[in-house]
Structure formats: structure tokens, C-alpha cells
Amino acid sequence: MNLLLPEIDWASLKDLALFALAIYAALLSTINWRRAQNNEELEEFRGSKIIVSAGSLLVFRGPAYAQVTAVNAGNDPVTVMLLTFEAPGGARLKLFDQGEAPGKPDTTLPVTLNEGQSAKMTVPYRDIAQALHNNDQVGVVNVTPICVDTTGAVYRGEPWEVNITQFALM
Q1: What CATH architecture applies to the domain 50-169?
Q2: Which of 7, 31, 86, 105 has CA 20 to 30 A from 13's CA?
């Protein structure tokens, strides 16, 4: 009998090793399953995508207009609650009198957009200048077109440079 190494019951050791391996495999399978669940949830969220843009609208007579457009580029329907501009610092412009450009009616909000559908809001430059002035903005500022859906998600477009003085005169 060896005093340094006790006798090993190889059958028990084999059973113990197989049991530890089974526990390890179950743990890895659970971790992979949970990650797959999270990825499915992320893919589902990615199905909602709104592209927001702003631009000028040409009208030959009368005031100049800006237009905010939101397009559902995702697979899932999205209900749009608000289209507006965000001033520097994050304040949302209150554009109450959204003067529709002649022949270009605005989308009545809220509206549910399916894949590829769009919503738009048209507002005179003067109203944008007044709203920025009401938010204590002066000079040239960048405003960001935004769209807010019923879940509270905010979709932002590219910033748009606005010269408040020039917009007030247009």
C-alpha cells in the first residue's frame, strides 16, 4: 500500500468526471439559449426603423417652407405621434401653426406607417425662426428633425443649419 497516493476507485472517478462534464454542457447550453433569446429580441426591435429627413420645399408664390418627412424603413408598423425639430440643447420646437404648402397636405397625426409608408409635416420658415426665438436661440443654429412614436422612441435625422434672421424674413 502506498501512503502518498490512496487507492483510487476508477469507476467512481469516471462517473464523477462524466457528471461534471454533463453539468458543464448544460450550463453552456443554457448560456447559448439565453444569448439566442436576446438576439431574437434585438432583431425584433431592429424591425422598427424610421428614417427622418428635413428639406426645403419650393413654392413660387408666398412664404418658404421646410418639410420634415419620416419613412418607415423597417418591417414592423410604427405609429408616429410627433414630427418636429429639436433645437440645440434638446428642446423640441413647438410649431403650432403648421402652414400647409399649397397642394401639399400634411399627414394627420397620429398615423400608423407600414413598411415604406411616410408621414410629413410642412412648416413655414418664419414659424421655425419664431419657435427658435421663443427658445432663446439667436444667429445660426443647427436644428434636428425628429419623429416620436407611441412607445416614446425618438428617431433623429441629420442636423439642419438654420439662420434665424434669414428664416424670419422668408
Answers
A1: Sandwich (2.60)
A2: 31
